[in-house]
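Input record, target 12 of the design panel.
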């Protein structure tokens, strides 16, 4: 028997859970970086697995958050290029 499971893209509440679990941080510890992630995450389709993979690489929260922001920015550029042809 096959089972189909719908997995949505990552949302900000999901991101907060990942950050707490993988980096042991809350958004009040890095408010500016979390705000930037929040502004990007609503416009870019990224999976929890993609973000979790980055979080597994390092325990340095600030570096990891910067890497996630870069991932989201790249996705935003790709999305813009796809729209414009």
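The sequence produced for target 12 reads:
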């Amino acid at each position: 028997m096959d089972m189909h499971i719908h997995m949505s893209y990552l949302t900000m509440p999901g991101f907060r859970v990942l950050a707490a679990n993988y980096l042991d941080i809350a958004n009040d510890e890095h408010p500016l970086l979390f705000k930037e992630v929040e502004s990007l995450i609503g416009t870019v389709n990224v999976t929890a697995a993609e973000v979790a993979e980055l979080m597994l690489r390092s325990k340095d929260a600030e570096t990891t958050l910067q890497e996630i922001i870069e991932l989201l920015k790249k996705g935003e550029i790709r999305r813009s290029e796809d729209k414009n042809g």
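The chain has a mean pLDDT of 87.
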